[in-house]
Design brief:
One of its GO terms (biological process) is bacterial-type flagellum assembly. This protein is an all-alpha fold. It has two helices and no strands. It has one domain. It is elongated.
């Protein structure tokens, strides 16, 4: 196993991790910004007002993108196992 293979494998793993976390993080960012804007406009400073909508939106994002996330993880894992003999030699 060469250092180039290690760097390529690490880059692929980080790329997959970024792709898989993007829907959840972007959803939380958008909902958090909208709730923060609403709180600023109405001057309501309630902590639970920001938590509940974010939790619901993240749950919806996971329901909508969960199948795609699972397929991406399975593809990466399958490719990793196919490369295993070359990595061990």
């Amino acid at each position: 196993m060469t250092d180039t293979m290690v760097i390529e494998l690490g880059l692929q793993a980080m790329s997959v991790a970024a792709k898989l976390s993007a829907p959840v993080l972007l959803t939380a960012l958008a909902v958090g910004f909208a709730i923060s804007l609403f709180q600023s406009v109405t001057q309501i400073q309630e902590a639970t007002l920001s938590f509940v909508p974010k939790a619901v939106a993240i749950g919806a994002a996971l329901l909508l993108t969960g199948n795609w996330m699972l397929r991406e993880m399975m593809t990466f894992t399958t490719q990793l196992f196919e490369k295993l003999p070359a990595l061990l030699s």
